[in-house]
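cache lookup: miss for this entity combination. No prior model stored, computing from scratch. Input as submitted by user K.M.:
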Amino acid sequence: MNMDLETAAMLRDSAARYAADNYGFLQRHAVLGEATGYSARAWRDYAELGWLALRLPETHGGLDADPLAVGALMEVVGSRLLMEPVLASAIVGTGLVVKLGSEAQQAALFPGLADGSLRLAFADAEPADSPCRVRGGRLSGRKISVLHGDVADRLIVSALDDAHGGRRLYLVDPAAGETEITRYRLVDGRGAANLHFAGAPAEPLGADAAAVEAALAEVLDEAAVAACAEALGAVRVLVATTCDYLKIRKQFGRAVGTNQALQHRAVDMFLLQEEVAALTLAAQQALGRPAAERARVVSGAKAYICNAARHVANEAVQMHGGLGVTEELDVSHYFRRLMVNAALFGSRDEHFARYLAAGRNGAAGGMHA
Amino acid sequence: MTDPITEARQRAEGLKAAIRSFYDGVMPVDLKRKSRLHQVLDKDDYVRWMRLLNDQGWAVGHWPKEYGGQAWSLLERFSFEDQLARLGCPWVIPFGVKYVGPVIYAFGSPEQKARFLPRIATTDDFWAQGYSEPGAGSDLAGLRTEAIRVESSEGDHYVVNGQKVWTTYAQWADWLFCLVKTARGEQAQKSISFLLIDMRSPGVTVKPIPTMDGYHHVNEVWLENVRVPAENLVGAEGEGWTYAKYLLKNERTAGAIVGMAWHALERLKGLAAEAAPASRDRLETRIGELELRFMALEVASYQAVESMMRGTEHGAEASLIKLRGTELYQHIAEAAVDTLGLAGVAWDAAALHAAAPPPLGPEDAGGIVKDHFYNRAATIFGGASEIQRNIVAKGVLGL
């Protein structure tokens, strides 16, 4: 992986242009009304723009994009609150197939991933009382809160391998039977599902448990970092929107932004934005480092960004007054997206614990330690 | 002679005990359940609830005896709201009994008292508050809704034009008490009047404002050439500001803030007990910090109420309760959503319980999430936190 600033900048510009033209607030409002919670048309556009091939190897017509480029796209996803399964399918799902898929699996899956006809979802979290396990190629158990599990064409499911022991990943076709899907919406409007497998046919992804664990850890870190970039996009919009509003909104005969107390709070929001940007970049760079250092920086970034984003979102709502909690203003939509963003791919507490553990194991605190 | 504070304390304790036995013995199971799950209550639920309270003599317990009240002390009134909220009871809709009722008995005509007060006590009339406007939120002096007085042989009336916003439950209201401008050009405070508007009048339009919790609380109310009989003016023209300030004084004693925080904290402890062992240590510390803040809020609130009764208040008491109470509540709500984990970002976890398993989180998860959304506005409505701090800075600290 090369860190290619130029590619990232080009991708950021073209993605921002596309989203500005096609994913304005009202256009997005129409998408929220779709049964699937996302726009099939936008998804086809993403395929044409090459976004869905970002994580695919160049040998298969992909871009083999580095974390900076992925982050550039995710920042736009966050800044316009795109609803499509970019993170779940094009980054996490695709990343797992790239790292673990056999030649045959990759040959079967890559074309569909690139053209958008195949949507993946990764099913990991499960209730403690019904863990997923695979026996004789059949999967049983439950998964909860699977992002875009409501629309996925293939599921990648983590489960205990009864034959060889350890945790493995499996490809499951939810249409192949023995899979019960409870579809619902997350608070930001994106679709999710709870899944109940009762002997669903499951095809192993990855050669052995050790390879799976290593690849999974890498891909989940990529996902956490992508979520950081998404948060950055949303935070930038909230800070800019709030500063604009402070200049426009008049009470007591003057713009509310002339109050020093509000100015200082706006400054704190801006400082958080800059820290979110710096930590996101550091985490993108750390993805190529040894595991312990990667864990320290990535989890530290995600933990800090969860808190920072919450603070910015709370302040943005507060400083917009009553408008801040309405559907008709975008602020409440960013608030909800950031809330989901903070809960997915590791909560604040989980990442903070991992950050502490990595520090105890001697990993450096940052890039300059 | 017993010290009035001591007597008020005894009466408040008696009231709290009566409320607890009311909750155990009288409160309908369906209302308890809806309220516990933070489910949306419809108009019928609220009317039933308010009438239940009135049956106990509580809906207007704070009114003077001559108007059917019990002349509660401030402490009883505060304790009443606190205790109901601690039990997780529905909201005591304040617009009639707490807001406009006292304005009418303090400043209204004998005809207005006879006409409106009994129907407020029984919630035969449902009231809404027409204060805020798009350009006048924190700054009520910026009101633009105009009422022009017209003399006529069929009786004098006002013609009202303007727009109100954030009007809670206007969609259910029979009446709107409304601040309007009755004079142009004059000093803002002297141009505002207090008008009672029949919501069925031609020219009144209610438009919902969807909010992020998905419930329908607030509305825009458009007033277009609405004809309001002159007899619906409360008190004198140009004195609306005085009445509004009197009303706000009644709004200040919000015992519900304390009780709600207590209730939410208890629920959070319950969620924490079921949380994964790995996260429990950190959660316990977090809850401990919140409990400590609650203790500070609780003792400061009750001491503030007693200072108000003694007339020894410094003027920051109400702001302290509102600021500390709402901000604490928001932090408790955040902790609850965090503790719910993945169930804390599901839009309607409650609906997931209606279907076959797998359920996601506890039965009230969806309600906790919506309550979190709703309460982001708690630091905005009823005097935003910024305004509360201005009040203390200017009025108390002299800055």
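stored under new cache key. The CA atoms of residues 100 and 211 of chain A lie 8 Å apart.
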